[in-house]
Amino acid sequence: MTTTSGSAKWQGGIKDGKGAISTQSGALKDYPYGFSSRFEGKPGSNPEELIGAAHAACFTMALSLILGEAKLTAEHMETKADVTLEKQGDGFAITSVHLTLNAKIPGAEKATFEELADKAKAGCPVSKLLNTKITLDATLQ
Known about the structure:
The protein is α+β, with helices and mostly antiparallel strands. The protein contains four helices and six strands, in the order βββααββααβ. Pfam families: OsmC (PF02566).
């Protein structure tokens, strides 16, 4: 078992306030986030893009493992995770994540590749964490 951490600081109100996020590894150190970066497209990060990065990384690593079990090795894989945040009632909810994978895997057949990618989508720990609709477009080059 492994445990890692991330942290957040916040000062001020929801619209005029400012936050900073950090990760245990130091990959992010007091990186800014706030209302304007979350809802208005301004510079800075937001929880949804961090979830997207985590999901893309987790899915891609899971697929690498599953490919190895099938005696396949990826030459290249790139995954994007589009995380959708929508207003629901009095609050907001992440309503879906759409994964887009482009991969070059020597010796892989399309049907096998799609089956293994679906297995990774369902089995990666971040997919299991998210209580939302997860879709996948997987392209084999």
